[in-house]
């Protein structure tokens, strides 16, 4: 007899068990938040909660692109490290928050060179409090900063770990 696993619910894409549970708790806990996504700077999904597969794929690419644009725009101000921390996009039906995790990693490791960081994206209802969502995102990023460094191709992390 062949046993078939039941498919994952459409609202919970399993990408990486390591941090997806944390995003799920974040979505459940923060009022107005409907989805969260952790992606590498080049748009690869690392953890997802509250999004269908096709939504997560599109959101990962879009959030990484927005992160890149915001970092380059930040360089106009003359900031040595790009200075970008967060962008908020407001639409009639959704608020989209995109936060760089690089600054939190740099604060914990004391190193701003060679970072291959991540991007946290959050979808919220238009009525969500942007201050609360942004604050909670910042706490989340700081609490797991050491897990937000993406390994390079040779398998070494910029901070010397594996």
Describe the 3D structure.
- The protein is an alpha+beta fold.
- It has one domain: Dynein light chain 2a, cytoplasmic (Beta-Lactamase).
- 35% of the residues lie in helices and 19% in strands.
- It contains four helices and five strands.
- Strands 2-1-5-4-3 form a five-stranded antiparallel beta sheet, sandwiched between helices.
- A hairpin with a 4-residue loop joins strand 3 and strand 4.
- The longest helix has 22 residues.
- The relative contact order is 0.17.
- The N terminus is likely disordered.
- It holds the Pfam family Robl_LC7.
- InterPro entries: Mycobact_SerProt_Inhib_Rv3364c, Roadblock/LAMTOR2_dom.
Strands of the widest sheet, in order across it, are: 2-1-5-4-3
Low-confidence stretches: 1-16
CATH class: Alpha Beta
CATH topology: Beta-Lactamase
Beta strand %? 15-25%
Q: How many domains make up the coordinates?
A: 1
Report the major sheet: 5 strands, antiparallel
Please provide the ordered H/E string of secondary-structure elements. HEEHEEHEH
Q: Please state the overall shape, judged from the principal axes of the Cα atoms.
A: globular
Structural class: alpha+beta
CATH architecture: 2-Layer Sandwich
Q: Quick one: how many beta strands?
A: 5
Share of residues in helices: 25-40%
């Amino acid at each position: 007899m062949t046993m078939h696993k039941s498919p994952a619910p459409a609202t919970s894409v399993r990408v990486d068990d390591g941090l997806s549970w944390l995003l799920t708790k974040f979505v459940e806990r923060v009022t107005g938040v409907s989805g969260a996504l952790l992606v590498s700077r080049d748009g690869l999904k690392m953890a997802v909660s509250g999004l269908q597969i096709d939504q997560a794929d599109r959101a990962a690419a879009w959030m990484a692109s927005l992160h890149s644009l915001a970092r380059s725009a930040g360089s106009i101000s003359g900031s040595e490290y790009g200075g970008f921390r967060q962008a908020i996009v407001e639409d009639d039906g959704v608020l989209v928050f995109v936060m760089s995790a690089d600054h939190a990693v740099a604060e914990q490791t004391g190193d701003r060179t060679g970072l291959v960081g991540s991007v946290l994206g959050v979808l919220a209802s238009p009525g969500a409090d942007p201050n609360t969502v942004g604050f909670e995102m910042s706490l989340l990023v700081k609490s797991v900063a050491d897990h937000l460094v993406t390994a390079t191709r040779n398998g070494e992390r910029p901070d010397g770990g594996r």
